[in-house]
């Protein structure tokens, strides 16, 4: 199924795409058909800067288990950072 | 001609067509060489975009004697971009609006009708989100045949979908042509209950349709490059498509 569901957030940071590093302005998160991953559905994240063109994109397609593990790893890494810097 | 009487040679190329709102958009055209008369098919790509696998499907129609044209529904957002980048850009903007889709299919149908040798009959086929859009086009435009391959959100839209995203079942009375529906029994979207409900509504409006639901298949069973591919359902499905288009698009 196509879920049509997309979460978009404003982003500050950088990503490295096919043409090198670029400044990020938004991130799209959705659970839908992948382009490349061998799965029916994956958790897809596009790190984007639309103002720099559609090629300004870092894409990942993760299995649901990987995505959940990644979310936990992000939270735990941020929680473990020394106070005041994260 | 080959032994089945179909033309063997075909030509495929990128062309520019006039889509919704007069916009010039990219499209992929495949047509049989040497055919004196042929029907035509508008191919609607899935959400991952104007990709190699849907171009392959477009060529398949030409190999079977039809002119086929696949408009790039995401051309406006990302002209010249790779199909996956364009699909991501379109998704970030909320996807192709329904009205725009109808205009793009209308432009594609006009282009096909104007081809030398075209018999004037135009069908539409779409896969996944394109299946929904095939139904939408057939309820919005005068066409000769439509195929919906496991299009979701015709009867019900998923929770949390954008507010602009509406179910289409209410358009059923406007269906302009015979409809072939090809679905998987294990699909969650659309479920067999949903497609049965759609069939009932179409019956109520006296609309010609034939639906097939394949056991052991879920969503995207035609997709040869995905783990969802189911060879038996796909082979049977293609046979239904050839019979259906042969009935409604050929002279």
Keywords summarizing the entry:
heterodimer; A: 86 residues; alpha+beta; 1 helix; B: 251 residues; alpha/beta; Rossmann fold; eight-stranded mixed sheet; 8 strands; globular
| Overall residue-averaged pLDDT value of chain B | 94
**Approximate helicity band of chain B:** 25-40%
CATH topology of chain B: Rossmann fold
Number of strands of chain A: 4
Order of H and E elements of chain A: EEEEH
For the report, how would you describe the main beta sheet of chain B? 8 strands, mixed
Q: How many domains in all of chain B?
A: 1
Strand order of the largest sheet of chain B: 1-2-4-3-5-6-7-8
The N- to C-terminal Cα distance of chain A equals: 38 Å
Order of helices and strands of chain B: EEEHEHHEHEEHEH
Oligomeric grouping of the chains: heterodimer
Please write out the topology.
The complex is a heterodimer of chains A (about 90) and B (about 250).
Chain A: E1 7-17, E2 20-32, E3 42-48, E4 57-62, H1 64-80
Antiparallel strand pairs in A: 1-2, 2-3, 3-4
Chain B: E1 10-18, E2 24-32, E3 38-44, H1 52-63, E4 67-71, H2 83-92, H3 98-113, E5 118-127, H4 129-140, E6 145-149, E7 179-184, H5 192-204, E8 209-214, H6 231-249
Parallel strand pairs in B: 3-4, 3-5, 5-6, 6-7, 7-8
Antiparallel strand pairs in B: 1-2, 2-4
Helix pairs in contact in B: 3-4
